[in-house]
Fold this protein.
Amino acid sequence: MRVNRVEQHRIKKSHKFFPIIDELCWKSKNMYNYGNYIVRQEFIETSKEKEQGLRENAVWIQYNKLFDMVKESEPYKELGSNLGQATLRKLDKVWKSYFEGVKAYKKNPREIANEMEISRSYVSRIEKKALEKLKTMLQRA
């Protein structure tokens, strides 16, 4: 299992840079949430289309398209170009990681469950529900 190291800095409210950092963190959070909302809506919509058989896979809006969509938005303008783009790249990386995780889980759910320390019985229940859902879908067709 790969371990990500995290560096954490604690800045006291009395520090002279605290107000600036606090404001930038707030604006970055707003940009991330705004972009994530747009990406999620597209993913939900294409997931519905996939369930209806209108498309092969659900998709998400990737960085370049998302950037074009939000570059004139208030959250992006408030944050500024460099930090706005960095926030959008981070969001894109998170969505890519999500799909890689789903793909890896489909290949070998037990291995992923072991890495995440999820019990085998829980994995079995998930598999059972997936099989029931598949059976229901096949009966409708």
